[in-house]
Amino acid sequence: MIPQQPAERRTLIGEYVLGLLDEAESAEVRQLLEDDEDAARMALEWERHFLELSDQLPAHTPSAVLWPRIQRNLGLGPAAAVVQEQTWQTWWNNLGAWRLTSAALAIALVVALLPGVWRPGIEPNSYTVVLQAPGEAAKPGWVVHVDSQGALRLEPLLQDQIPADRSVQFWTLVDPAIGPRSLGLVEPGRDLALTPEQIGAVQAGQLFELTLEPVGGSPINRPTGKVLYIGRAVLASAN
Questions:
Q1: Neighbouring residues of 120: CB distance < 8 A, sequence distance ≥ 6
Q2: Is residue 124 a part of any domain in this protein?
Q3: In b/e form, how buried is each residue of 14-23, taking b as 16+ CB within 10 angstroms?
Q4: Has residue 31 been placed in a domain?
Q5: What residues make up the domain containing 188?
Q6: Is-contact 112 95, C-beta < 8 A?
Q7: What is the pTM of this model?
Q8: Cα 86–Cα 141–Cα 24 angle in degrees, nearest 5
Q9: 3-class SS at 130?
Q10: Cα gap 195→7, rounded to integer Å
């Protein structure tokens, strides 16, 4: 049962974001986030809080047997992309946003092995962002690629059903003091391409998110609706 006391409700939502609730409790909180905008904003606040904490964790080099073991557990055969050791090292060292749960680590591996998402030895200073639903680390919905020239491509991994009276808006956040900046509206299930001039410089840890807004987008040039997907940029390859 969802508690009525604000402090208890906030704690419960934080536990949901961390993935600590059982299936029945998670279903209750998901419904709460659907129905209550304040609760949805609270979930986003927790998400950002935990991402900031995870960014402060020291990097640890995984053992040589870790990736093959995860690959076997996920049922991915040898035909999957072979990633150069240094490339994986770069990914791991910058993967602060997904250090919170073991399930999230598996997601990072799956996305890296998807065709077109990870190609070892290409473009210097390119970035990848896995956008996932708040509190559901095992369900990535979109992936963002930023190439070495700064061009961005947003690609769907799921087909979302969006109400006719709502739009999906794409945002990025570099400096919390300045606030989020809109990158435009997104058609569910369709790619979106942006030029370097449209997105500006991208850096590791930069926040990207998709929110549910009124038709035509947010009326105040700031997110006002439910956060559908959120993630941080990680360095996919570097010089």
A1: 81, 82, 83, 84, 87, 237
A2: yes
A3: bbbbebebee
A4: no
A5: 59-237
A6: no
A7: 0.53
A8: 115
A9: strand
A10: 43
pLDDT digits (tens, 9 = 90+) for 190-224: 999 999 999 998 988 899 999 999 999 999 889 99
Strand order in the sheet with 140-146: 181-186, 166-173, 207-214, 227-237, 126-132, 140-146, 152-156, 192-194
Q: Answer yes or no: is 25 within a domain.
A: no
Mean pLDDT of 3-31: 84
Report if residue 222 sits inside a domain.
yes
Residue type, 233: A
Rounded-to-integer distance, Cα 93 and Cα 95, Å: 6
Chain segment 62-94, per-residue pLDDT in tens: 566 666 766 666 555 554 444 433 433 333 333
Number of structural domains, the chain? 1
CATH classification at residue 82: 2.60.40
Rounded Cα distance between 215 and 217, Å, is 6
Task: Look at residues 175, 170, 223 and name the one whose alpha carbon lies nearest to residue 193.
Answer: 170
